[in-house]
Design brief:
Blueprint lengths: L20 H23 L9 H6 L6 H18 L11 H11 L2 H14 L4 E7 L5 E7 L14 E7 L6 H4 L3 H8 L5 H11 L1
Antiparallel strand pairs: 1-2, 1-3
Helix pairs in contact: 1-3, 4-5, 4-8
The structure holds manganese (III) ion.
C-alpha cells in the first residue's frame, strides 16, 4: 500500500485568522502532497515498501536523502494537521499537563521554551514536544524535514506536537514575522489531541 495524503478534518479557512486559507490549501495540497508522492517513489521496489512510516523513520539511513526528506515531510505534516483545530487553544489537561508542569514548571514556561525552539531554528525546520517512555516530555527543534523519530536527531521520543517553521507555512500571511506565527499557533493547538497522543506514547 502506498502512502496517501490524509484529508484535513477541517476546511482550509477553519483556522483563520491564525493560519490563512490560501496557506493551508497550498501547504496541504501542494507541499504535503509532494512529499507523499516522492516518498512513494523513493521506497517503491525497495525493502521499505509496505513498512509503516514510523518503522521507516526509526530505521532511517541518514544518507538516503530521498527517504529522509520525503518520509520526514510526510510524517511531520500528518502530525501537524492533526494537532490543530478550529476549536483549539486553551491549556493541556490531565497527565499531559502534569508532565509539562514537571518538566517546565508551568504552562507559560513551556510556551516560552517551545516558542524559543521554533523561533531560533535557523532556516527551515520544526519545533517539537516529545514524550518519552517514562512519561517525561521535552522540547527540541530539527532542521529541514528531520524529526525526533530519526535515530540520533532531535530529542528522541515520540513527537506529540509539531510546528512547521518553514517559510511556506507562514510567509503569505506573516512574511518574515515568524514569532507572530508562532504565537498564533497557540490559538489553534488541539490539546485534547495532543493529550491523547501523550497517553498513547507512554
Ligand atoms: Mn510544511
Amino acid at each position: 500500500m502506498a502512502f496517501e495524503l490524509p484529508a484535513l478534518s477541517y476546511a482550509h479557512d477553519a483556522l483563520e485568522p491564525h493560519i490563512d486559507a490560501r496557506t493551508m490549501e497550498i501547504h496541504h495540497s501542494k507541499h504535503h502532497n509532494g512529499y507523499t508522492t516522492k516518498l512513494n517513489s523513493a521506497i517503491a521496489g525497495t525493502p521499505l515498501e509496505g513498512e509503516s512510516i514510523e518503522f521507516i523513520l526509526n530505521n532511517l539511513d541518514p544518507e538516503n536523502k530521498a527517504v529522509r526528506n520525503n518520509g520526514g515531510g510526510f510524517y511531520n505534516h500528518c502530525l501537524f494537521w492533526e494537532v490543530m483545530s478550529p476549536d483549539g487553544g486553551g491549556l493541556p489537561s490531565g497527565k499531559l499537563a502534569t508532565a509539562i508542569d514537571a518538566e517546565f514548571g508551568s504552562f507559560e514556561d513551556f510556551k516560552i521554551a517551545f516558542a524559543n525552539a521554533a523561533a531560533t531554528q535557523f532556516g527551515s525546520g520544526w519545533a517539537w514536544l516529545c514524550v518519552h517512555a517514562d512519561g517525561s516530555v521535552n522540547v527540541c527543534a530539527t532542521a529541514n524535514q528531520d524529526n525526533p523519530l530519526m535515530p540520533g536527531i532531535g530529542c528522541g521520543g515520540l513527537p506529540i506536537l509539531g510546528l512547521d517553521v518553514w517559510e511556506h507555512a507562514y510567509y503569505l500571511n506573516y512574511q518574515n514575522r515568524r514569532p507572530d506565527y508562532i504565537n498564533a499557533f497557540f490559538n489553534v493547538i488541539d490539546w485534547n489531541k495532543v493529550g491523547s497522543l501523550y497517553e498513547k506514547g507512554i
